[in-house]
Amino acid sequence: MAPFVDDTVYVDWTTRFVFYALVAVVSGLWMIHRWQQQSRLFRLGNVLPGPEGVPFFGNALLALGKKPDQLVNIGLEYAERHGTVIRGWLGSKLIVFLLDPEDIEIILNSQVHIDKAPEYRFFKPWLGEGLLISTGNKWRSHRKMIAPTFHINILKSFVGVFNQNSKNVVEKLRKEVGTTFDVHDYMSTATVDILLETAMGITRKTQDESGFDYAMAVMKMCDIIHQRHYKFWLRFDSIFKFSSFFEKQKQLLGIIHGLTNKVIKNKKQTYLENKDKGIVPPTLAELTQNEEDGSVLANDAKTLSDAVFKGYRDDLDFNDDNDVGEKKRLAFLDLMIESAQNGTHQLTDHEIKEEVDTIMFEGHDTTAAGSSFVLCLLGIYKDVQAKVYNELYDIFGDSDRPATFADTLEMKYLERVILETLRLYPPVPAIARKLNTDVNIVTNNYLIPASTTVVIGTYKVHRSPKHYKDPDTFNPDNFLPENMSNRHYYSYIPFSAGPRSCVGRKYALLKLKILLSTILRNYECTSTVPEKDFKLLGDIILKRSDGFRLQIAPRIRKPTNVA
Ligand code: HEM
């Protein structure tokens, strides 16, 4: 006979155990919640306006089940409701969104709050400690080395490369005449090719299809990082590592780092071979000097952008009229290798790789998005396109000659169109910083506590009715000198501002002018999708999830009457 077992006693003990365990967990969580609420961060954070959160999660659940474009709309709605300072809780992490230029200036212009928010760590496997995310002395010394490699003298020597690659795009686009196509694909490959040649010094002859694969891999990596931002469970490395995204990331980084490793290896080998032959490239100091009197030219606003960005207080304010000969053209990568080899800067091969990856990412996706938005907007606003073309006709007539640096200074209306496009559709729609100390902002003299993540909502700042009349309307005249004169400098920050502003600003604007003018001299663009139907995707870089659909027709080269 089987021994008698009293099941009721066993069930009773299990039930009691589960009950006490639950009580312990709930009490523990309640105590943590109470402790959080009484902490200084919570007290100060909750003084700021923002949506109500729930215990433990704060406002993190808002992202649950939402698509990225829905999240953009939620963010914009909160901005309407709460004003220019908006507080949010991601669990116990305080995030403050700033939208007032006066508050933004305090953060961006500071030498103290130069550290990027912890969210940038998702870039780390890709960009390592490159300029975009590095901090402290490493960032300072690398910035000091890299900023001058974008000196206007060096940029001018890239004009030929910008022209040649722009002509290549025009040729490639020929097969799209009469179709509706996504122009971003073309802009993306063109910008990678241009970067490979100008920043990395890889000539077209030695380029292969890896440029296209690279551009696609970058796009997919941005998507993974974006998913990690808004799916809060993917923020934890321990969970991310077991997701399908991790494997995908490994594969994409293989493509991205494969290209940069190959580029650096070849460059270094060429440098050493040349050195053996006694060929020594010019130094940065030689390249950035005025050829006549040997002095670096003083600050002198030559273009509209020079005036627009005058108040940025960054380290890019230089200008020079002298042309640098072709033989003196030296890419960013050549300069880094040269500095490392001759001992001017202590740079390891790994650090060079991190900077190369950073420049390739920052320099590519931003300008690809910017140029795609310009072409789509011109495809909608045909009167503006006609004015751009008339200006180009005044400069070039019906000739096919390539643009010179001097021509780009005459493209004043095109420049206003580019600046206005970057206002409405800033490729970097938000910038985030971690506060190292408490900060008092101008709005209500609010105190934002140390360790807060501050997010500067560039997209929304650029559409403020306080600073722009009809802020949602595309109007290049927003950048007429008379309309700019009373505007706060920090109400226009597509390239960020202050000590951590974009080092590639001048490079980007020069390249955009040559690329876009070449396309517009050859094609008339049409877009049948009105602006209100653009589906924006804040995917690290602002893009359209509905694609940048465009139609093109060969340009009849004569001026148009503009109503
Ligand atoms: C329309 C084109 C571009 C836009 C709108 C743009 C915008 C920006 C913004 C907003 C930042 C600050 C990001 C942050 O703080 O999170 C930045 C940083 C940076 N950009 Fe650009 N960028 C553009 C083109 C370029 C190009 C062409 C290059 C290089 C070839 C470049 C290289 C960099 C680098 C290296 C940084 C990091 C600077 C630092 O932290 O010291 N960018 N860019």
UniProtKB/TrEMBL annotation:
The organism's place on the tree of life at top rank: Eukaryota
TM helices/strands, residue ranges: 17-33
Gene Ontology molecular function terms on file: heme binding; iron ion binding; monooxygenase activity; oxidoreductase activity, acting on paired donors, with incorporation or reduction of molecular oxygen
Family annotation (SUPFAM superfamilies): Cytochrome P450
Cofactor: heme
Family the entry assigns: Belongs to the cytochrome P450 family.
Database matches in PANTHER family: CYTOCHROME P450 4G1-RELATED (PTHR24291:SF106), CYTOCHROME P450 FAMILY 4 (PTHR24291)
Protein name per the record: Cytochrome
